[in-house]
Design brief:
The protein is mostly helical and about 325 residues long. The protein has 15 helices and no strands. It comes from Litoreibacter ponti.
Amino acid sequence: MSDQTNLKRLEVAIKDPSLWRVAMDSDFVYKFKRSPVAVVSTVVVLILILSAVFAPLIAPFNPFDPSSLNLMNGFSKPMEPNAFTGDTFWLGTDDQGRDVFSTILYGMRISLFVGAAAVLLAMVIGITLGLLAGYVGGWTETLIMRVADVQLTFPSILVAMLITGVAKGFTPVEYRDQMAVIVLIVAIGLSDWVQFARVVRGATLVEKNKEYVQAARLIGRKPGAIMLRHILPNVLSPVLVIATISLALAIIAEATLSFLGVGAPPTQPSLGTLIRIGQGFLFSGEWWILLFPAVTLLALALSVNLLGDWLRDALNPRLK
């Protein structure tokens, strides 16, 4: 960025010192505007998230209301009138006559909720253990890091499947469908905390030897207060980048578990459940039941992943 450009932005900030103007003139926003990938990814992510949040207002039908379903509308092709009822559906219907477009909107709500909640759980566990390992050190650090190393030897999806199986084994049969989403969140969260812990530990090892931490010790600050109020705010930048990328991985993990039949139940179908249902009708000619949920999942995961990659580069001080 040229000195002339910086000078112009500084002059604008002086004339209009509002917080919004300062934010819009920041390097972060400048880089964002000049990155087509970041802009397009953000737009796609916002459209999909808002569509899921406002699904009851956008969806033409409530696919999970049995009173609104008509089995005669089953297997209706996209944008073609049904041979029996004459009804037309944008993306067709499934075997039960449910509008595929509506099921996708409602399915995204489950996928996004599970993914976001799982990443939040992984962040809480990983940040807590990473701070303890980096600041306390000793046998605490050894124990936490060895557990993390052992977990890294197994694919996260297998760890999630193991946790899901164990949790369902202890859950009464009559409550399994009701607890399925919570079990999914816990399983994915417990399988993804390691990367947060390792990054936070490394950053904490650097921060704890700096002058402001030593000053906090001298004035009598307790270790918990030092970790939470002084070290934590300075190690959050890489954590936020990892969280964005982990969100895409968590959504894919949820879809994988649901596709394998150990995730969201049919009464609360996610995108993975819809793909599993559509896969059973793919070779009989009803391709739309599988295609549209799969394309939605691909667009959501790819956009979040690309946005996370851009954040990693934008927040990397070595690339500034």
